[in-house]
Automatic annotation (TrEMBL):
Signal peptide location: 1-21
Superkingdom classification of source: Bacteria
PROSITE patterns according to UniProt: PROKAR_LIPOPROTEIN
Protein name: Lipoprotein
Organism: Streptomyces sp. R21
Keywords noted in UniProt: Signal
Length: 220
């Protein structure tokens, strides 16, 4: 004798205690924010929170979806601009680890340039991200910045690791990009490659607050 579906469902629920999903119904997952170009997984980095792991270097990069226009807000520390951690929490590349530093970020010449997205891709992303942050300044004076820089193992094109960084206080309008964050990244890179600090510690210090990263690690 053939039982129709409602009868099977009722019998299952009353006698076996099963859920509707067990008899072929489905549930939907809540929607999430932009995920293009990112794996969505996370890896522990030092003693701080886990940092997302991006897709890593690609042969062909595509323009990534950015946070909604006006949804991101700058913070400032002693006048220096900081990213919105809700929009730009940082993302690391799976291609760079503590074990392979000598063949990646610490090798002499060419690593970061070999994995950097084209200006065609980043130019379009910069415009979209400027809208995300409601940036209205001069675009030529703002840097489309990797929060965790490529020389510290940051993901090349994950939207979580890129933001339009405004010029520093006192910056002369029209003089181009010249941010105080850049030398901080270079000092951290030197410390990582010399073994003074671990890669994870440097990455954590940057995502916590790049303006205090060096002092946090006892580097100045």
């Amino acid at each position: 004798m053939r039982l129709d579906r409602p009868a099977v469902l009722l019998t299952c629920l009353l006698l076996a205690g099963c859920s509707p999903a067990a008899v072929g119904t489905s549930t939907s997952s809540p929607s999430r924010g932009p995920v293009a170009g990112a794996s969505g997984t996370a890896a522990p980095a030092g003693s701080g929170r886990a940092i997302a792991v991006g897709a890593g270097p690609q042969q062909h990069y595509t323009v990534q979806q950015q946070p909604a226009a006006g949804s991101c807000h700058y913070r400032y520390e002693k006048g220096e601009p900081l990213e919105d951690p809700a929009c730009t929490p940082g993302a690391i590349s799976p291609a760079v680890t503590q074990a392979n530093l000598k063949s990646t970020i610490c090798r002499k010449g060419g690593y970061t340039s070999s994995i950097r997205p084209s200006t065609y891709v980043t130019g379009k992303e910069k415009e979209l991200n400027a809208a995300s942050y409601h940036f209205t300044g001069r675009m030529g004076d703002a840097e489309y910045d990797h929060l965790i820089s490529l020389q510290l193992g940051g993901d090349p094109n994950d939207y979580r690791n890129l933001w339009v960084e405004p010029a520093d206080p006192g910056h002369r309008k029209g003089s181009g990009v010249n941010n105080a964050k850049d030398p901080v990244e270079t000092k951290l890179h030197t410390a990582v490659c010399s073994g003074t600090v671990t890669l994870a510690a440097a990455q954590q210090a940057i995502v916590a607050d790049w303006t205090t990263a060096l002092s946090r690690l006892g580097l100045g």
